[in-house]
Amino acid sequence: MKKLWTNCHIATMQDGQYSSIEQAAIVTFAQRIHWIGAEKDVPVDDYAETIDLNGAWVTPGLIDCHTHSVFGGNRSVEFEKRLQGVSYAEIAASGGGIASTVRATREASEEQLLASALKRIRCLLKDGVTTIEIKSGYGLDYSNERKMLRVIRKIADTLPMTVRATCLAAHALPPEYQDQSDAYIEHICNDMLPKLHQEGLVDAVDAFCEYLAFSPTQVERLFKTAQSLNLPIKLHAEQLSALGGSSLAARYQALSADHLEFMTEDDVKAMAAAGTVAVLLPGAFYFLRETKYPPLDSLHQHGVRIALSSDLNPGTSPALSLRLMMNMGSTLFRLTPEQTLAAVTTHAAHALGLQDTHGTLEQGKVADFIAWDIEHPSEIVYWLGSDLPKRIIQHGTEISI
Ligand code: NIG
Ligand code: FE
What we know:
CATH superfamily of the largest domain: Metal-dependent hydrolases
Radius of gyration: 21 Å
EC number: 3.5.2.7
CATH class of the largest domain: Alpha Beta
Shape: globular
Number of strands: 15
Protein name: Imidazolonepropionase
Bound molecules: N-(iminomethyl)-L-glutamic acid, fe (iii) ion
Mean pLDDT: 97
GO biological process, one term: L-histidine catabolic process to glutamate and formate
Strand content: 15-25%
Number of helices: 15
CATH architecture of the largest domain: Alpha-Beta Barrel
Helix content: 25-40%
Structural class: alpha/beta
Distance between the termini: 24 Å
Largest sheet: 8 strands, parallel
Binding site for Zn(2+): 66, 68, 236, 311
Oligomer: single chain
Binding site for Fe(3+): 66, 68, 236, 311
Low-confidence stretches: none
């Protein structure tokens, strides 16, 4: 069943640029883009449906490539403490932080976790996000990590979105393994990860490489296991200190290294050589009132792909709008609106290993696109918050929002 979508302008985002086609049209066939180009060149065919997009600007569906959107409770009280001067690391050291979300997540049922996550993710969907990555990492034992990953699979069954599940069992040390971080990593490698993977619950593996979490040596142990299971790798690296996690990630051909405020020039070079995407998280940077910037000039100079993401999580980035993060990405990290849009489409697709099917609008790719009621694509980045009028097309079908 071919559908013709007419009367629009398209930012295809090929080669990381707008690569615009004005006065354009798209033909979709089932879930894919069958043809895309200038309206005057539309192939003559018997279209089942013709849809007038009223002069909208069409972009690829947005991709949020780093979220922790499944969790119990929230940390608004901790936010108040931080504003009184207590640091994120101090809160973590006193049993708060990630550990407090672990307690709340362990207490919650699958149904409760699903219901609260759906509320948050619907906000992202309404903002134009059609692909999302969601991490586990607040369970920290087999049954609770499994519970989170099962919820992530249920989100995929419930919402019209592409959902990727990342196992972040190496997010923090669970109370059962206090002062035994090597033993916990062994438990993940020998037991948890192989089992969760065998159940079909894992699309990628991530870890928190940080002085208050896991060392590069421990992360490398986990990477070796991920590699032996043929699972792609991602890493939280250089968020609070420089441990060389991003270079380690690059050595293991990671899809992405994320945060990166403290990364060095050598890390940048290693990531450039490996094609590892730099995922920058302006929400966490802003919310933690970070002052150290990722090395933006160096990342550009060495041609590292830069993605942006919400990092939606209860501790460092309770962000319910990817568009707001895009504005922050431009304002704080000096990305042009074009680079910012590339950061949440084509580059974010690379950060998930989905670049062959998602992230740009071209023939053969999945027909996920947003028709924005705006005069120019830069407006997607320009307006701060709220809801921009739009139509969302996922897998060739318009969805109601
Ligand atoms: O991406 N850095 C570690 N993980 C999350 C924070 C998780 C939390 O504080 O609950 C992040 O910022
Ligand atoms: Fe994160």
